[in-house]
Write a structure and sequence with these properties.
alpha/beta, eight-stranded parallel beta sheet, 8 strands, globular, binds pyridoxal-5'-phosphate
Length: 241
């Protein structure tokens, strides 16, 4: 295959994948009593070359997520980002907070009070307020970052006192589950917290964004209340590290 036909094929694949995903999101939205436009689709672009990311952006994707600060900053100048939101979705180290604050529209992966304070400190320096989601480690897994469910409430009140960040909602990555019943228990656990915190009307804490669902489980996540799904491999194909 020539270089040109290879690129054309990748472009066609990405467009086809987005059509299928958009349709499935729409169906799941309706099943959960909502409409397609109430659910946001994020294209997760880790390890993906900017050429292919631009195929998705040119086809209407308006939200992208990267896991790593360096990778995000390296690719950013090459992307067609007009009208596109960028979110950080991977664990953020305190020493990288200064580089990412102001460079993305939201940090979805706030997983400790310490990092929340550091983001606030860097935001104050730059004269900005940073939108964040709080990440919950709903399966209490060692391998994953995030607040544990049991400690979450005390931390929410602590974080609500920090003026330079604005909490917009919650993010989670559930454990791998053998069946949808188990999976839904995790998603519903987070949904219940999302609703509960929302009704408490805590200063500085809004519950508008519920980020859950990836390639393997986004339809289920929407059925359980998600309004933002983060999809990588189902759009761009398997990741090559
Ligand atoms: C990689 C990643 C995704 C996307 O995963 P896929 O299974 O490829 O859709 C979503 N969320 C987070 C936090 C990720 O790291």
């Amino acid at each position: 295959m020539t270089e040109k036909s290879f690129l054309e094929k990748r472009k066609a694949d990405i467009r086809y994948n987005l059509d299928v995903i958009n349709e499935k999101i729409g169906e799941a939205a309706v099943k959960s009593g909502r409409t397609r436009d109430e659910i946001r689709l994020m294209a997760v672009t880790k390890t993906v070359d900017p050429i292919f990311i631009n195929f998705a952006l040119d086809y209407g994707v308006d939200l992208i997520g990267e896991n790593r600060v360096q990778e995000m900053l390296r690719k950013k100048p090459e992307l067609h980002l007009d009208g596109v939101e960028k979110h950080l979705i991977g664990h953020l180290q305190t020493n990288k907070a200064g580089q990412i604050v102001g460079a993305v529209d939201m940090i979805q992966s706030v997983d400790s009070v310490k990092i929340a304070r550091e983001i606030a400190k860097q935001s104050a320096k730059k004269g900005v307020v940073t939108d964040v989601l709080l990440e919950i480690n709903v399966g209490e897994e060692e391998s994953k970052s995030g607040f544990s469910v049991s400690e979450f409430y005390e931390h929410v009140y602590e974080i609500s006192q920090i003026p330079e960040i604005r909490v917009k909602g919650l993010m989670t990555v559930p454990p791998i589950c053998e069946n949808n019943t188990t999976l839904c228990k995790f998603f519903e656990n987070i949904y219940d917290i999302y609703v509960d915190i929302g009704t408490k009307k805590i200063d500085n804490i809004d519950m508008n964004v519920l980020s859950m669902g990836m390639s393997g489980d986004y339809e289920q996540a929407i059925l359980c209340g998600s309004n933002l799904v983060r999809i990588g491999s189902s759009i761009f194909g398997p990741r090559i590290y």
